[in-house]
């Protein structure tokens, strides 16, 4: 009698641990904070419900009935703790831990354990082994989410389209249908042979395992694509703001110049009319002093950009140089000759140039004396664009910028790198190289002029 009671307490303890781990996975997936104390109390209440159900309905206390109760239990928890979240997301957060754990556990039981000589008929009678497989399944799901960078909490932000909402509703419905199918087989199991029940369960598990994995990959890809587009839009918006601010400064300079010209003209007129050479001399000296002050001014001289006769490219270079200047970089620009064409599609070249300038700015920000220089050289048989920037001490000489960990911290770095790779594959006369030497990052774009 005592041994049975201790065994009963052991099962209760294992149930509490299993539900606590599942609740922890639910909190991790949904980003709904649950304290350890709350997780314990919720797990304890669920186990107490199972004990009461077992006491009054022992003939109906089977594994799938318990799973259905957990299904409703997690739905209520999601609705209570996520009041500000839309119902379709709450249902996904509630169903995902249970369905994923069930699928992985049953997949292991039906398809992996038989490889070790333990078919389902043997495993189902080993309660401790089932608990071990369940805990392993939870750990495996947790690690897969971390390794493959699934961020389900951001889905609420990027699932705005009608198509995405329908796909999420379909995913929720498929998870609910999975539980109904499993429960239906359990209800019909007395009228079916053990082999038929096991076969039906195996088919359902395999089908839903593939379906669920496909839906998750598709949904996550949609979210990442939308998040990248949002990052790019924010980046373009920031560049537009910098460009507008610089235009405002240019307009202010023009107004100051007009006022200066008006003042100088008035003084010169007075000096000439009064035949007073001292007034003319003072005006002239004032202009010289103003020019000396302007020479000391560290403002960016953008007049040479007029030699870039492709307007879109001139604008992207201007925006990046303004960004660098706003980040306190010393900027130099060299364009000896006018350049009318770059022999690439304008969109491709602007993406390429923007990526390399972002790299240069990012690397230079880590140095004590950040600087950036860009030169457009029109040589006999090719165009060469040289982008140089300072790098922090410790960077390996000859190290490629594409292997530098510092750049990979940018949210849109991988997206931009894929674009660059696509562009390089599109033009066989285009080459890009990068090198770090003596604390200077040099990036080269070489475009051979087509015959």
TrEMBL record:
Residues that span the membrane, as ranges: 6-26, 38-56, 62-81, 93-116, 128-145, 166-185, 200-219
Top-rank taxon, per record: Bacteria
Keyword Transmembrane helix: yes
Record's keyword annotation contains Signal: no
Keywords: Kinase, Membrane, Transferase, Transmembrane, Transmembrane helix
GO molecular function: identical protein binding; kinase activity
Residues covered by the Sensor histidine kinase NatK-like C-terminal domain: 344-447
Matching Pfam families: HATPase_c_5
Protein name: Sensory transduction protein kinase
Record organism: Streptococcus pyogenes serotype M28
